[in-house]
Design goal:
Tetraspanin, mainly alpha, Tetraspanin_animals, Tetraspanin_EC2_sf, Tetraspanin/Peripherin
Length: 248
């Protein structure tokens, strides 16, 4: 297979890869929006207070980081398509840089998801614990409504005591307000929900890392090809200019 055939094959692969990267950008953006505006996360965020500032910070940071990654992925995909079709050397180098930035960010996000999922899980359960204990110690209509909203969203009710007993909250709320959920422990339901969400994030970040590495390989190869072709064209123009100066 000649050099031109290799370049043509790499161009086709980069165009297809760019389309997948565009879809990844959309997926990351949708996941960030779901994390920020999803009903399960929103009900926990609205119940969090100043004593649970970690979860609120996590809630906001994840959204902005996800949106930034989504924008960078979409821009890099569009730029790589244009650079591939028009053979733009500078745009191809910019695409390589964007892919490298997203690769680093995706790697950090994957590492953070693995190492800090327990921290986020504890933060969400702390929010529930705070509301639960507040309702138990102080009859507040606002707190009671927040606790009811959490029970309704996660299809659970109360906490299972290690001693097997039930508190006044389970006796009052579970059987009457949310039938059929009295047996579900809210702490376990929150834990299961967050684990599923974190698994989706890990899979999406792993796919992103793969496409970023593959995109960097393709863009570096095509940049070298475009750069080599540009040098040959400049040499040809230089030779023609010298010949015209000498009168041949």
């Amino acid at each position: 297979m000649g050099m031109r055939s290799w370049v043509r094959a790499m161009k086709c692969q980069l165009l297809v890869t760019s389309l997948f990267i565009m879809l990844l950008g959309v997926s990351v953006g949708i996941l960030a929006i779901i994390t920020y505006n999803g009903k399960h996360f929103t009900v926990i965020n609205s119940a969090s207070s100043e004593t649970n500032s970690y979860y609120r910070n996590f809630h906001n940071i994840v959204f902005y980081v996800g949106i930034c990654l989504s924008i960078i992925l979409a821009m890099a995909a569009l730029m790589s398509i244009v650079a591939t079709i028009k053979e733009l050397e500078g745009a191809m180098a910019t695409c390589f840089f964007c892919f490298a930035v997203v690769l680093c960010a995706s790697g950090l996000a994957t590492y953070w998801t693995i190492t800090n999922s327990i921290v986020v899980e504890n933060a969400m359960m702390d929010v529930y614990d705070f509301v639960y204990e507040d309702v138990r110690s102080n009859i507040s209509s606002t707190r009671r409504q927040e606790l009811y909203s959490i029970h309704k969203m996660f299809l659970c009710c109360g906490k299972k005591s290690p001693f097997g007993g039930t508190s006044s909250i389970e006796d009052e709320m579970c059987a009457s307000e949310i039938p059929g959920t009295a047996e579900e422990d809210c702490l376990q339901e929150i834990k299961h929900f967050l684990k599923k969400h974190m698994d989706i994030v890990s899979v999406l970040m792993t796919i992103t890392i793969f496409f970023m590495i593959y995109g960097m390989v393709l863009t570096s190869f095509l940049w070298h090809s475009i750069h080599h072709k540009s040098n040959l064209d400049q040499k040809g123009k230089y030779v023609l200019a010298r010949l015209s100066e000498t009168g041949f």
